[in-house]
Amino acid sequence: MHFHKEFKPIITFSLIFLVPVSLLVFHFQTSFNPLTFLQPFFDSKANLENDFCDYSNGKWVWDESFYGWYTENCRFLDPGFQCRKNGRNDTRFLHWRWKPHGCDLPLFNAKEMLERSRNKRIVFVGDSIGRNQWESFICMLSINISNPSNIYEQFGNPISKHRGFLSMVFKDYNLTVEYYRAPQLVVVDRFQPRNMSFGVMRGAIRVDKLPRFAYRWAGADILVLNSGHWWNIDKTLKLGHYFQVGQSINETMDIKEAFQRSMDTIKSWALNNPKFAKSYIFIRNYAPSHFINGTWKTHGTCALESDPYYDTNNFQPESWTNQIVASTINDMRNHGMRASVLNVTYMTEFRKDGHPSEHRESGMPPRAPEDCSHWCLPGVPDTWNELLYANLLSFGSDKARTL
């Protein structure tokens, strides 16, 4: 049967219009779902949400049998994170486990993580909260190493070193887990105060330049970046640290634009570095502090907190840095990189009970501020590392022997 050519457009239009309408009518009259029917015709990437679990959205549940993945006797812990040894008497903060809504967080398996990381480098870069996470990760892995002497610092540095970087070797697996201190991820030059037309200048944050040891970050099989706590007015402009682009100080640049420029620098560096072709890159977003009735400077406290928040009524507004981090990661993914936000803000906001507070290392002055920014270990950063492990599996790395 042949249609006259002038009827073909009419027939084509009718089919385009009537088929979707018919499917919708059939849907409302029956249990038939037209989206399910049409699903095979869509691009497969559009259907990832069917298997997607948002590990960052959930609640903390009490687990009487859980005391953490390791103990404070882990020899890689800073004294300031060993809250029990520093006088904290309660252990309730150890018993909370993160439970995502609608799915389960994969159980961290140290042996499997070590096997998959054989002959590789895992690199953490950021501020002292990032170091908190790095120490947690080393301790979580070390529970599977029977001979303690098979874990050591590559260059003979003590764990107490806080400048530059540390590189822990897991000899049995030819694995290094490294930490690089870079609180703002870009170069910060400090110098003697200079009287400028716009104020006293004590330093320059060079938003378009990475630290001199950034070449060591390149080629990491897993790179975990973090920043945020140093990106505030008090630790930048009020300190006399202004923003620099190229050889020029930009006295009008605000902190949000400066952070955006620094993330653009990170993104451009990663996208143009062939050593990252097979890497997994994470940027951990903001980990909230919990200074109650004050701030770090005005003797805010978290000393009496023994349980998490049970609702979100007392949450602080989400950090503006998170949106910029998410946008940066999205751009990297659109360029084919295996990149992800390690989204810890919401889960961490609940945990006002997890800080060292007044239980700081010995030798602190009697009137020293409480620490309501860092975290007791074992503690909350262990869950960040469970999230890191789960995200690595979600990239599909569980289908191969190594990451």
From TrEMBL:
Keywords: Golgi apparatus, Membrane, Signal-anchor, Transferase, Transmembrane, Transmembrane helix. Residues 53-104 form the Trichome birefringence-like N-terminal domain. It comes from the Eukaryota. InterPro entries: TBL, TBL_C, TBL_N. It is found in: Golgi apparatus membrane. GO terms for cellular component: Golgi membrane. The chain crosses the membrane at residues 7-28. The keyword Lyase does not apply. It is a single-pass type II membrane protein. GO terms for molecular function: xylan O-acetyltransferase activity. Residues 105-390 form the Trichome birefringence-like C-terminal domain. The keyword Zinc-finger does not apply. Belongs to the PC-esterase family. TBL subfamily. This is Trichome birefringence-like N-terminal domain-containing protein. It comes from Rhynchospora tenuis.
